[in-house]
Specification:
heterodimer, A: mainly alpha, 74% helix, B: alpha/beta, Immunoglobulin-like, Rossmann fold, 3 domains, 6-stranded parallel beta sheet, 5-stranded antiparallel beta sheet, 15 strands, 44% helix, 21% strand, elongated
């Protein structure tokens, strides 16, 4: 059995979280609140050391990059949301942040549309009829999935059948993805059980 | 023939029009080197080594592309490393002397290209000398001076021409449909099962006297799925306010929390019940993924909600949330464009909005003509993409050159 107190803390916390499998209980509640509280405290430290100090405080007050006053003022304006009288000031930085999402449109068109189409086309036709049939299957699969997400036509008749085929292909891909991820989750569980049995109790090696 | 022509005319005119525009764009784009970029290029040669250099195309400046080839086989066999040396052209010693040249990079002999970014300034001519050395660092060959090569920034990235064309087409189509929707044109959008279920779930919660829990995902405010989720939440909050039910919204991201707080507050005001809004029900939980998941799992067990909504961007916490919710017996409706998490929602939730259905739900539920027009416009953008896909596929099958990089590399210009 381990003599390291931190191993004990980890093991007891793990067991407290696992008690949720029985039902919600005071032990789980304690672990949950400690976990949430510590995570928020940790995030505050990370934000200061990784963001505010190196990207705002040092460049502004030591290197005199005065342009950084703009984000500083916007950050302060965000804090006005706690005031019922001046809360409207917080809408300005919020509007800026939401509006800034438009910046992602060209990147989205590039990566989510053009690169996907290009990848669908860039199949090899060399080597006879089989690669051509494979390429056609990929093309028809892609088109039928796109038709499934086409909202302007009701899913009836030929469109409905193509959409159904598209949704079947989606389900096959989701099934494969599900199996793959569950396998990864099982390995996480094994890791935790191994931590309890090996690192804490020392019953396995 | 007559039958065929009749069939063609049965195809909606707008589909033919879109096909015409798309094929015209492709035919224009394929053979003509649009916006061909001027680059400063120069080459030098010796019997042993050839070096070619030019300004790196499509960049913001401060970079020179070098390409070199060792021609002499006997020296190539002995060479271990290639040393790239540089000086500002015209400075210091005359051509032929390497005294003023500074080493920039030592490369393996198999390397054929080097992108020099080390201290390069735009508009300044640089000369290069290449030294070939053996394993013991003995110089086997020193090239004559090559250059000058000048770096410069470009205003236009020719590799992104396809992005520009498609952005213009997309924006035009979407604006067109938004305009049509504003004019009151009846735009058909097929009903989605998940959307009807959202309204039913709120009704169920009201009847049972239990709250709804709404999880807006773990992404930032600039994410489309978060924006769609907020749009849906706005409508749900209005229904909740009208039914005098309760909604609990634990948040992961501080900015998203601020926006959601305002959206829910406004929904209650819009429903004429600002007094019913409870600020303590919309709160920031934590920004750590699994702490957030454990917090919500505990919340679900304690509150025993009648309905859970998971709408937005999710990662590994999705299954924890959906399983914890299923254990409470609540009706669960999920929607995400996070492809890897959709399977978990499908198995653990009653209804799942897959990918783009989430955006559609935002527009559909919002009832806003602008959102509806936008959704309809996106459908036609999809139609454009499908036509591009089919046309390019068959062009490639027919052996047309340049298709492989047409959409991602500026058409091979």
């Amino acid at each position: 059995m381990s003599t390291n107190p931190w191993i004990w803390v980890g093991a007891i916390s793990t067991i407290m979280i696992f008690t949720y499998l029985w039902k919600e209980n005071p032990l789980y509640r304690l672990a949950e609140h400690v976990f949430v509280g510590i995570s928020v405290g940790y995030l505050i430290c990370v934000t200061w050391y990784n963001v505010l100090h190196p990207k705002l405080y040092v460049p502004l007050f030591h290197e005199h990059q005065w342009i950084l006053i703009v984000p500083l003022v916007m950050s302060i304006m965000m804090l006005f949301r706690f005031s019922s009288k001046h809360g409207w000031l917080s809408f300005w930085p919020l509007a800026f942040l939401i509006g800034f999402s438009g910046y992602g449109i060209p990147a989205s068109i590039d990566t989510n549309m053009l690169k996907q189409i290009q990848a669908t086309i860039n199949v090899s036709f060399a080597g006879g009829i089989i690669p051509i049939i494979t390429a056609l299957v990929i093309l028809l699969g892609t088109l039928s999935c796109l038709i499934y997400f086409y909202f302007s036509f009701p899913h009836k008749g030929a469109v409905g059948k193509i959409a159904k085929f598209g949704s079947m292909l989606l389900m096959i891909s989701f099934g494969a993805s599900f199996g793959y991820t569950v396998m990864a989750r099982i390995s996480l569980l094994i890791g935790r059980v191994l931590f309890l049995l090996r690192d804490w109790l020392g019953v396995v090696h | 023939m007559i039958k065929l022509s009749k069939k063609i005319f049965k195809v909606p005119v707008n589909v033919l029009l879109v096909t015409l525009v798309v094929t015209s764009c492709i035919s224009l784009y394929l053979p003509i080197p649009l916006f061909a970029q001027e680059s400063v290029s120069a080459a030098g040669a010796s019997d042993v080594l050839i070096l070619d250099g030019k300004d790196t195309p499509n960049d913001g400046g401060g970079s020179i592309d070098l390409k070199f080839e060792i021609k002499d086989k006997s020296i190539l066999d002995k060479t271990y490393n290639v040393i790239i040396m540089r000086k500002i052209a015209g400075d210091g010693a005359v051509n032929g002397s390497t005294e003023d040249y500074k080493e920039v990079k030592q490369l393996d002999v198999s390397t054929k290209r080097y992108n020099d970014k080390k201290g390069i300034e735009d508009g300044i001519p640089y000369s290069y000398v290449v030294k070939l050395v053996d394993k013991s660092n003995n110089v086997l060959f020193t090239s004559p001076s090559y250059g000058p090569f000048i770096s410069s920034p470009q205003w236009y990235n020719t590799e992104k021409t396809a992005v520009l064309i498609l952005s213009i087409i997309s924006i035009f189509i979407i604006l067109l449909f938004i305009n049509l929707a504003k004019q009151g044109r009846n735009l058909y959008i097929r009903p989605l099962a998940g959307i009807k279920a959202i309204e039913d779930a709120v009704g169920r919660a009201t009847e049972m006297g239990k709250p709804c829990i709404y999880i807006p995902g773990i992404s930032t405010i600039d994410d489309i799925s978060t924006l769609a989720s907020i749009s849906i939440l706005s409508k749900i909050s209005e229904v909740i306010a009208n039914y005098q039910s309760r909604i609990v919204i634990p948040n992961y991201e501080p900015i998203v929390y601020s926006v959601i707080d305002e959206v829910v507050k406004n929904a209650y005001v819009k429903a004429g019940r600002p007094d019913a809004y409870k600020q303590e029900d919309v709160y920031y939980l934590t920004g750590r993924q699994f702490a957030y998941a454990s917090g919500i799992a505990g919340l679900m067990s304690r509150e025993k909600p009648a309905a859970n909504f998971f709408l937005g961007w999710f990662m590994a916490e999705s299954l924890i949330l959906a399983e914890a919710g299923a254990m409470t017996g609540a009706i669960q409706i999920a929607g995400t464009d996070s492809i890897s998490q959709i399977p978990f929602f499908i198995v653990a939730c009653d209804y799942t909005l897959i990918g783009e259905e989430l955006y559609a739900a935002g527009a559909y539920m919002g009832g806003d003509s602008k959102l509806l027009g936008g959704l309809k416009g996106q459908d036609y953008v999809k139609l454009v993409l499908m036509i591009i896909l089919v046309v390019l596929f068959f062009l490639k099958l027919a052996g047309v050159e340049g298709i492989d990089t047409l959409l991602v590399g500026g058409g091979g210009h």
